[in-house]
Specification:
mainly beta; Diaminopimelate Epimerase, Chain A, domain 1; 12% helix; binds the ligand N[C@@H](CCC[C@H](N)C(=O)O)C(=O)O
Length: 259
């Protein structure tokens, strides 16, 4: 099976071309591919499939991004994955031009490529309430944000001192499908963020997380926020009816996988 490896600000993915939807991509296979010692290693898998061959693709675009977390679970959306997916479509000649659309479980995504940067427009993040999470013995209050997938954004004095090795405990009644937990410091001129992703653990970056963070930092208003993550920098622009996530997206290898 052919694969490509890519990343967006260090949030890394195994990309599997499966244009006709023939692949049996079980959760176990995804977890094996993402295993950093016994597999290729990644935060998630991006299956590239024609919308006509996908069961959950929205009407319209030719291609569908089937995203899976590294534990094999499905997620509604992956912002960095979307940017890397676009880089793959462009580099493989499956799409052309600087503006394109593709399908995701969160609906149709618009993308714009500009040199090293790829920006994707997702739905506008909605602040949906308050909740809290326990990180070890540390209890953090936060704001819950929905951008297709669920996030809890918690302000801390210094993101570097938070221990994200273990999964945060959260209110399962509030987040019945689980949650991605972001810790942030700074302000709208530059926000620092670390994240523990549902289904993947701590990652170097999370695009939808950065959008959720921007919504909280801007207090629900429109605007642009640079978000610094351990893997680099993302720029988030919230408009009245959508949210742009911009940053680098890179392919690093092509190969054959035997597992
Ligand atoms: N890394 C992603 C988010 C991937 C999905 C997330 N772990 C979830 O389960 O919701 C991003 O860049 O947005």
């Amino acid at each position: 099976m052919r694969f490509t490896k890519g990343h967006g600000t260090g949030n890394d993915f195994v990309i599997l071309p499966d244009l006709d939807g023939a692949l049996d991509l079980t959760p176990e296979r995804v977890a094996a591919l993402c295993d950093r010692r016994r597999g290729i290693g990644a935060d998630g898998v991006l299956r590239v499939v024609r919308s006509a061959a996908a069961t959950d693709a929205p009407e319209g675009p030719e291609f569908f991004m089937d995203y899976r977390n590294s534990d094999g679970s499905l997620a509604e959306m992956c912002g960095n994955g979307a940017r890397v997916f676009v880089r793959y479509l462009l580099e493989q000649g499956l799409a052309g031009g600087s503006k394109l659309e593709f399908g995701s479980r969160a609906g149709v995504i618009t993308a714009v490529a500009d040199g090293d940067e790829i920006a994707v427009a997702m739905r506008r993040p909605a602040i949906v309430g308050q909740s809290s999470a326990m990180l070890g013995a540390l209890q953090l209050a936060g704001q819950a944000v929905d951008i297709g997938n669920p996030h809890l954004v918690c302000r801390v004095p210094d993101v570097d001192i938070v221990d994200l090795r273990d999964a945060p405990r959260f209110d399962a009644a509030f987040f019945p499908a689980g949650v991605n937990v972001e810790v942030i410091s700074g302000d709208a001129s530059l926000t620092r963020m670390r994240v523990y992703e549902r289904g993947s653990g701590e990652t170097l970056s999370c695009g939808t997380g950065a959008c959720a963070v921007a919504a909280v930092v801007l207090g629900g208003a429109d605007g642009t926020v640079p978000v610094e993550v351990p893997g680099g920098r993302l720029t988030i622009t919230i408009e009245p009816d959508r949210c742009w996530l911009a940053g680098p997206a890179v392919l690093v290898a092509h190969g054959d996988v035997l597992i």
